Fold this protein.
Amino acid sequence: MRIHFKTSYEHDIRLFPDRWTFSVYAALLALAFGLPWLIDEFYLGEVTNVLIWAIAGLGLMLLTGQTGQASLGHAAFLAVGCYANTILIELGLPFIVAFPLAGVLTGVIGTLIAIPVLRLHGIYLAIATIALSILADDIIVLLEPWTGGVSGKFPDMITIFGFEIERWSMPARFYYLVLVVTIICTLFYRNLLRSPLGRAFAAVRDSEVSATAMGVHIARTKGMAFGLSCMITGWAGALMGYYAGTFNNETFSLVISITLLMMIVIGGLGSIHGAFFGAVVVAFLPQALSIGKDMIGGGGVAIPGLETGVFGLILILFILFEPMGIYGRWLKIRTWFELFPFARKDMFKRQKSYLKTERLR
Amino acid sequence: MDVLQLLVSGLANGCVYGLIALGFVLIYKATEAVNFAQGDFMMLGAFVTLGLTNAEYMHLPFWVAAPLAIAIMAILGYLLDLFVLRHLFGQSQTAVVILTIALGFVIRFIAGAIWGHEPQTLESPLALGDLQMGGVVLGMADVAVIIVTVLLTIFLYQFFQRTKLGLAMQAASQNQMAAYYMGIPVKRVQGMIWGLAGAVAAVAGILFASKGAIDPNAGLLGIKAFAAAVIGGFGSLPGALAGGLIVGIIEPFAARYLEAGYSQIAPYVLLLAVLIFRPHGLFSQVRIKKV
């Protein structure tokens, strides 16, 4: 068991708590870079998918996990990022400029949308963002000259200084691109949490009243959270467009929004690990189900709705029995090993709290 | 005449939205949770009735099956609160939101597994015939929807104002702690409200299924009912109905007078506008809680 004596503020906000953790993550990174030599192209594609979902999850996690604003409209921002990226490239910008710009643009749009929505909290915010998600579908159709409407669009090949990247013919190159974006987003997220803004996010999540008392500007903090969250989501959307190869108004539906939210809950709200764990579940659930069906013997019979049904069931069980998600379970297992003879069952027991009424605010 | 026709058919649709919205508001008022699966409850209620009446399933007479289905849905609502939602007490609202969305997925899957994914029609005596009144054609089902909604509203109003249980529910919704001290079994009352919401959903489902075909995805109608509930004000029962009527009426008019692409977004634009300018809804009583 390792004990961290935090003797100064610098210790508290270190990127890695100790050398051991650092070396674990370094090894993980080396493994990630060596992956194209270790597994075949099909699974490489799946891993790429996991990483893209993880980026999207990080985006929503910033909003829901850190700031406590549940959004059911992030598919709309995925769409904004995806279309912005494609349109900017069509306008003649190189990928290396268009891609970051697409994220920034999504962030700006997110902030603009957030300004009126910021007055809402809890359920009202969820409903307003549901409406956004539904509206996005119709707005894409209405903006047909730019978005291609129902017939959709397909992104061009990515070219970075003459170096070509394509999802189907060169999966390894595309994988590296996604990996680099993932690492940048993860570091960005981690560093944000170490900054005053990140602490303000957590303060707003835990109690708006006490955050105000501490001198946090609630509306500005929420707006920043919305903007930064949408920026990361926009990048994920752009990558999703490349991964899918073609997209139209139905690609980024309400179901994607809901899946995203469920993904970060299953993974573990408020932790970076959670976004990755959740992405693994979302990406591999279809495969796991088909393998499960083969084992039972139901083989080729397609059962419509099975995937979402099982997904919903897993989610219900998680919320009831493990509100901290897979990451929470992982923490418990790790703590058990670290404390070995002294671990107790109730160490993570949730404190009972009374219903906090929304109407009082 | 055209306008009148649109108005009447909009009213009938709006009543169904209003009934689903009523379910949201009932639960929200009592437990501060929003049941995102209310639309799926409605769908399930319709399918239970369908399973009890239709010839290829149980083939009970409609007037036996309908109350039975309402009772089944009420019990289901109560059990759901007992076994699932009560454990969430004190957790954040996000948890409840996500849980009920997941519940909707599961209900949709179960209904699809039992009754199939094809649209089916309920063999209901309400679905027969049209009513002709001075150029306005009105399906019997539409008339039934409007009448039942009015009756149900009156019933609920009387229930909350006059009966002991209704008053207990009101008390529990205003201040759980105070209600508990006054000897109201708050948990059981909340369970009963979930049951009541299940019953209302079943009524909405029966009415909806009499108006046309129903399939497991009909629960997505719940999103429109959300718009209705928010427009009306989430905390007010008459507001929910009024919101439902507004959404129901806007839809056919937008479809008639607006361009194709713009018509289906009309309810949501209205929803966003209401949220931005009057976040508590058009008919809410915005006042500080007294207790």
